Prior knowledge:
By secondary structure, this protein is of the alpha/beta class. The chain has two domains: 3-185, Rossmann fold (3-Layer(aba) Sandwich), CATH 3.40.50; 195-251, Orthogonal Bundle (Helicase, Ruva Protein, domain 3). It has helices spanning 3-10, 18-26, 46-51, 64-73, 108-117, 131-138, 148-154, 195-207, 213-216, 229-232, 241-251; strands at 14-15, 34-38, 56-61, 78-81, 98-102, 124-130, 157-165, 170-171, 178-185. It is elongated and about 65 Å long.
Amino acid sequence: MSEVKAKKYLGQHFLTDESIALRIVESLSPTTSSVLEVGPGMGILTKYLIANAYPDFRVVEIDRESVAYLHHHFPNLHVVEGDFLKIDLTTMFQEPFALIGNFPYNISSQILFRVYDCRNQIPEVVGMFQKEVAERVAAKPGSKTYGILSVLLSAFYDIEYLFTVPPHVFNPPPQVQSAVIRLRRNSVTTLECDEKLFLHVVKAGFNQRRKTLRNALRQLVLPLDNLPSPTLAKRAEQLSVADFVELTQKLTP
Length: 253
């Protein structure tokens, strides 16, 4: 498979602008010691990450041609060949690690859900995403782009939209704008509610976001009669993380 065809197949557009690559790497906290890069491709971020001499730096890459390229050009690099969504992160690092990458756009939401699931392992994320996804993650309550990932990730991370990246700095150029965001773990360790139910409530609310919560939450078969009418009259996009926590508390059987 040719390089360009491989990129299209994987849903990835490889960055070619060195200044942007360096800017992304410099967005990681200077105290970071363990780093995992997802989808390094031809290594435009990788070489700058290697230069930072992290005590523990690894990359995970699924494309065999890219893996061969990385082994050839960075012989001392720890390359994990596999799918980030499937590898066992609990045994990969002995301590928390930062996640970085020009993430494949076709699985970017899945990567972020994995971050949420592994939030106690991943204190920081710096990544390139489709601009629409980046805006959704960084959105605040009341915004039309505010959604499931906005709530789940902001419950445990401070999220910053860093900068927008134009299409022409990629090969092949995507049909959309891109953006870099940073997530840094906040001080919240657990939510003051049933976290599994919290997840179900958030997803149910946004899966039918045009409906009021009274109608959107009916699928959960929970005691909605215990909720005050003003809450049920709202839509999911109007609720903050604290509001969703309070809602979950009231819905707990």
